[in-house]
Design goal:
Elements (H helix, E strand, L loop, with lengths): L2 H12 L13 E6 L2 E6 L3 E2 L7 E7 L9 E6 L8 H10 L7 E9 L2 E16 L6 E17 L2 E10 H6 L1 H8 L7 E2 L2
């Protein structure tokens, strides 16, 4: 072994080892929207992209370097915004039927029920003002749509974006409102 090799090996052995656990707690910030308080990961940045229909919009970081970010839009409508079934059907209809996969589960966040719709496939992403009803097809997309029923009203959380980006944030989305995938049951 050369002198350089011994010095390199000594430095490697004596260097402090830093381990970052994949399950390390994510730092969150409380965000209150009407009567709903979410624990939002600090990596989700409030977006300037707003509309009068949205309570808030967050940019969701890409799952991979150079990848595309996702978006979380949060809504609540006076009078509820339609039935749970109607909203689930509308969200499913926002994906092209060819190659679309969907799963609907029901869970509890504290004393409150929520429905979670998970969709993958080609998302017909809205473009322009909603009144125009224009869309563009975006393949390899995922949506996590949550209908959370509180005593004060119904809240809709809709996360959309590239499949891997949204999939990587699924647990964080559930944790933001107190949901837990382990307690969810398939909807009938």
């Amino acid at each position: 072994m050369t002198r350089t090799s011994i010095l390199t090996l000594t430095l490697l052995i004596s260097a402090p080892l830093t381990v970052v656990a994949d399950d390390a707690p994510t730092k969150t910030t409380d965000v209150t929207l009407k009567a709903l308080t979410l624990k939002v990961p600090e990596t989700w940045k409030k977006s300037a992209k707003q509309s009068s229909m949205r309570l808030a919009t967050f940019d969701i970081p890409a799952a991979t370097k150079g990848g595309e970010k996702g978006e979380l839009a949060i809504y609540s409508f006076p009078g509820g915004g339609g039935s749970v079934e109607a909203n689930i059907s509308r969200w499913i209809g926002q994906f092209d039927s060819k190659g679309r996969e969907s799963k609907v589960t029901v869970g509890k966040a504290g004393d409150h029920e929520y429905h979670l719709v998970e969709l993958t496939g080609t998302y017909n992403q809205p473009v322009g003002p909603p009144i125009r009803r224009q869309t563009k097809p975006v393949p390899d997309s995922r949506m996590l749509g949550v209908i959370l029923t509180l005593d004060s009203g119904v809240y809709y959380l809709k996360m959309t974006g590239p499949d891997e980006t949204v999939k990587a944030q699924a647990d964080a989305l559930r944790k933001s409102f107190g949901g837990d995938a382990a307690t969810e049951k398939e909807s009938e």
